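From the shared-data thread, chain only:
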Amino acid sequence: MKNIIKLFALLSMFIGITAISNTEAHAATKYRVVSTKNVTTKSYIRSSAKGNMYNLNGKLPYVTFKTAHYLKNFPRTTFKVTKSRIVLKMAFVPNSSNGLYSGWVWHGYLKVKPGTGTYNKIYTNARKQLGKRYVYGAVGPNRFDCSGLSKYVYKKAINKTLPRTAQSQYNSYKKASTSSRKQGDLVFFGSSKKNISHVGIYVGSGKMIDAQNRGVITEKVASPWWHCVGYSRPANLN
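Structure, as tokens:
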């Protein structure tokens, strides 16, 4: 039976591969490329040190795999995924070699880098909480306080673990001004930078999603009952 392998192309320093089964590709085995397509760029880190990275050599649609690097040598490398590819296993052919600075690696040896992702995931997850009750000290999934909501949404959406309180969330991340704020930033309220009492998730157009006495709602940042202290950026979103 023919084996189907799905590939992720990674730019930066390397290129990476994804397979439906976790069987390592054999360098002397010939493969036929079925399809290649662009994907939304995401950041990955390795989830295992066991895998290899490969160069794919040959004239399309037929390629062979040549080991180029070993994941054990790159414990802190960030991989940028830009393409996906599906390859069909064929027959044995002589091994070939080409290049040193790109390669393919099975997707099971990679995982999404924590704290990275798209704003759309943050926004979609935050909207799912609209209408839920406000309860002081609640962290979800059915009831929230303000920092419980931001903590829950970031963890669910992009696997980013935020500190528990609004004050610690403000203290922990890079600050952004009103003019440089971006969708997905956290917006903070209180009497001063050292007395933060509320936090919301900025969603653009001067609005935020937050948990307050009326529950989880969408409201304006510039409301008379809030004093905006500033913004922080827990993650670089695209």
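The first strand starts at residue 4 and ends at 11.
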